[in-house]
């Protein structure tokens, strides 16, 4: 009998070791990993620099609290905000980064209404869950934080809902858990303009899309946006828990000493890992991710789009969603791919989601396509739950 709450629907695989873009289970079976631990281990599982940084910090000291000066936090914050007018608050997860963003926006503006969008996902603590539009994960947990309003994503009828009463708008430029749904460029820009006109802060949740996933440090850069607040977590420290909220320096009066905090936020091991991550997210590396992603997406579209099981393939960089028809359940495809040695993810709207480590070579990405194709063409009756 398990002594864990059954909050996770776990596959019958236990990972024992990790290599670059491969994982090996406790029976010695090796898998090609197109999950990155849900968009976390972008540099794979054995990155020399990240490992050396963490090991060296482990040998010095791994936790001191936020009572003392912290040069590593300064270094990481400086890299994250270089060339911008932003300051950083460190926490431990994506949901906490969004909590910090909502609190900062409310306190700085003196307003309370937050506008979020249909099909968006921002986390599972009360503030973040209150701006998440996913009924199955909200059922039974209400009442939620008041004055959170939902507006339709990628829809111009959302614009007039943003008024001078609104403290902030929170959105993903690509909805990840929502099925890898790309925001429409001109709509996103109109949302930003409406925010500027109404003195509303624009919070962009880059928890899944940030840190190079789309071939840019932040996905919003590809949409020519200038958010007031950015939230990060997942890949920031390649698997050591961390989150961050970046906000304009002018907001600092609302986040003065004692106003917000976290015992573990900006932990030294996480900062050591994040320093190693940021050192490797060079313009050249990001360009390679962008190109690999373009080639992989185009090849997937060419080779899979005609299948009756596929309705749409979209994505950016190495964040790709293959939306499936009702004739096949994405979770069944994930299980079949596991049997073929390929680990993948699902997302809403019956989507097969691919988030390979950013270091995966293009040839390895391309070699996976026949495996995915065969699984989409297979007879699913033979797959058991
Ligand atoms: C866009 C987005 N925001 C927030 C979160 C929540 O992050 P965490 O699970 O670290 O709390 C996620 C997690 O999937 C996410 O995809």
Note down, in words, how this protein is organized:
The protein has 385 residues and is of the alpha/beta class. The protein has 2 domains: 120 residues, Aspartate Aminotransferase, domain 1 (Alpha-Beta Complex); 233 residues, Aspartate Aminotransferase, domain 2. It is 33% helix and 19% strand. It is built from 11 helices and 17 strands. The strands form 4 sheets. A 7-stranded mixed beta sheet has the order 4-12-11-10-7-5-6, sandwiched between helices. Helix 3 packs parallel to helix 8 and helix 9 packs parallel to helix 11. The longest helix has 22 residues. It is globular. The two termini are 20 Å apart. Pyridoxal-5'-phosphate (PLP) binds next to helix 4.
Q: Key features?
A:
17 strands; 385 residues; Aspartate Aminotransferase, domain 1; binds pyridoxal-5'-phosphate; four-stranded mixed beta sheet; 2 domains; seven-stranded mixed beta sheet; alpha/beta; Aspartate Aminotransferase, domain 2; 11 helices; disordered C terminus
Helix content: 25-40%
Q: Which architecture name of the largest domain does CATH use?
A: 3-Layer(aba) Sandwich
- How many domains make up the coordinates? 2
Oligomer: single chain
Secondary-structure element series: EEEHHHEHEHHEEEEHEEEHHEEHEEEH
- Rounded average pLDDT: 97
Strand content: 15-25%
Main sheet: which strands, in order across? 4-12-11-10-7-5-6
Name the bound molecules. pyridoxal-5'-phosphate
Radius of gyration: 21 Å
Shape: globular
Give me the secondary-structure category: alpha/beta
CATH superfamily of the largest domain: Type I PLP-dependent aspartate aminotransferase-like (Major domain)
